[in-house]
Amino acid sequence: MAYDKELAAAIKAASLAARLCRGLCGFQKVQKALLQSDVRSKRGRNKSPVTVADYGSQALVSFVLQQEFPGEFSLVAEEDSIDLRKDGGGEIVERITKLVNESLTSDGSYGVSLSSEDVLKAIDSGKSEGGSQGRHWVLDPIDGTKGFVRGDQYAVALALLDRGNVVLGVLACPNLPLTSISVAHPHSPNNEVGCLFFAEVGRGTYMQLLDGSSTVKVQVSAVENPEEASFFESYESAHSMHDLSSLIAQKLGVKAAPIRMDSQVKYGALSRGDGAIYLRFPRNGYREKIWDHAAGSIVVTEAGGVVTDAAGKQLDFSKGKYLDLDTGIIVSNQKLMPLLFDAVRASLAEKAKPQP
Ligand SMILES: Nc1ncnc2c1ncn2[C@@H]1O[C@H](COP(=O)(O)O)[C@@H](OP(=O)(O)O)[C@H]1O
Ligand SMILES: [Mg+2]
Ligand SMILES: [Mg+2]
Ligand SMILES: [Mg+2]
């Protein structure tokens, strides 16, 4: 109702972007054939990877949203064109432009071909700072770039903020198996893959195939006994402290080994009950960005789950690009959350104690 048009546009934009990421080189499993030259390191201290697909996805989503909502438009997105505009960037920009135009042609709705400059401008229209006033789109064009490059999980994550609250979210997950992933089969290589989750505030969470078919309503796991719960965490130990998660899991009585996976696919998998807990504890000094959690958090909360920081506070998306939070992010169902919260507090206190 309230956001139907926005939700439809978000699903369209994220699906097209997922097709671009998949189609980099033919058909599924595309990202395995990424060329070395398609992957760059970003400027700055942490030199995180970025690929032609990250840029292409951002340009495409930005273009589609601007076509659907001409007039007032605000987008907070991860990438920018600064590195692309440097000397020697021409070739990669041409490759991105080709990818974007191929995706637009395959869709056929807009009947335009973008120039390289149009593509750079579309990427740069993601420079909004967000905040607590008005509406802002929030985009991670490829969340889990390291997973994408490795041939594992990644997501196109798009959300809408209205007066600081996330009101809708879409997670396109091209490599997520349609059936439940488990500790035994985290990758399910023979299973059909490609899911899209969408949620609108007050209206629940749904999952469909990436082609838009087979829509089903999803719910988080109803597991109440921690011994039967399994938990997700980042694949990358640099992104989340695995030793702390394992201490928490041990205090809680979780028996299963962690399911390590890249990106907000973890939130999608949790929303359909593949696991019951997601633990994320970045190392000291790291500041979480809103595009890494906006879509995922509404997908989980509308499926009946709870997403808080380590102090039990709801995530606040109204403060600009960064989330201002206590220590980490914890996600679970309503029943398990009080136990999880106690285990988190006890584990953090134990870790803070001076070692004998
Ligand atoms: N040192 C760090 N600690 C925590 N998160 C980090 C990090 N460095 C990068 N990230 C974020 O972790 C995200 C991936 O999450 P995950 O570990 O769940 O796969 C990255 O998103 P991108 O891949 O979009 O850059 C990036 O924003
Ligand atoms: Mg990144
Ligand atoms: Mg990200
Ligand atoms: Mg990203």
UniProtKB/TrEMBL annotation:
<dbReference type="GO" id="GO:0000103">
    <property type="term" value="P:sulfate assimilation"/>
</dbReference>
<dbReference type="InterPro" id="IPR020583">
    <property type="entry name" value="Inositol_monoP_metal-BS"/>
</dbReference>
<feature type="binding site">
    <location>
        <position position="143"/>
    </location>
    <ligand>
        <name>Mg(2+)</name>
    </ligand>
</feature>
<protein>
    <recommendedName>
        <fullName>3'(2'),5'-bisphosphate nucleotidase</fullName>
        <ecNumber>3.1.3.7</ecNumber>
    </recommendedName>
</protein>
<keyword id="KW-0460">Magnesium</keyword>
<dbReference type="GO" id="GO:0046872">
    <property type="term" value="F:metal ion binding"/>
</dbReference>
<comment type="pathway">
    <text>Signal transduction; phosphatidylinositol signaling pathway.</text>
</comment>
<keyword id="KW-0378">Hydrolase</keyword>
<keyword id="KW-0511">Multifunctional enzyme</keyword>
<comment type="similarity">
    <text>Belongs to the inositol monophosphatase superfamily.</text>
</comment>
<feature type="binding site">
    <location>
        <position position="78"/>
    </location>
    <ligand>
        <name>Mg(2+)</name>
    </ligand>
</feature>
<feature type="binding site">
    <location>
        <position position="140"/>
    </location>
    <ligand>
        <name>Mg(2+)</name>
    </ligand>
</feature>
<dbReference type="InterPro" id="IPR000760">
    <property type="entry name" value="Inositol_monophosphatase-like"/>
</dbReference>
<dbReference type="InterPro" id="IPR020550">
    <property type="entry name" value="Inositol_monophosphatase_CS"/>
</dbReference>
<dbReference type="Pfam" id="PF00459">
    <property type="entry name" value="Inositol_P"/>
</dbReference>
<dbReference type="GO" id="GO:0004441">
    <property type="term" value="F:inositol-1,4-bisphosphate 1-phosphatase activity"/>
</dbReference>
<dbReference type="InterPro" id="IPR051090">
    <property type="entry name" value="Inositol_monoP_superfamily"/>
</dbReference>
<keyword id="KW-0479">Metal-binding</keyword>
<dbReference type="GO" id="GO:0043647">
    <property type="term" value="P:inositol phosphate metabolic process"/>
</dbReference>
<comment type="function">
    <text>Converts adenosine 3'-phosphate 5'-phosphosulfate (PAPS) to adenosine 5'-phosphosulfate (APS) and 3'(2')-phosphoadenosine 5'-phosphate (PAP) to AMP.</text>
</comment>
<feature type="binding site">
    <location>
        <position position="142"/>
    </location>
    <ligand>
        <name>Mg(2+)</name>
    </ligand>
</feature>
<dbReference type="GO" id="GO:0046854">
    <property type="term" value="P:phosphatidylinositol phosphate biosynthetic process"/>
</dbReference>
<dbReference type="InterPro" id="IPR006239">
    <property type="entry name" value="DPNP"/>
</dbReference>
<dbReference type="GO" id="GO:0008441">
    <property type="term" value="F:3'(2'),5'-bisphosphate nucleotidase activity"/>
</dbReference>
<feature type="binding site">
    <location>
        <position position="292"/>
    </location>
    <ligand>
        <name>Mg(2+)</name>
    </ligand>
</feature>
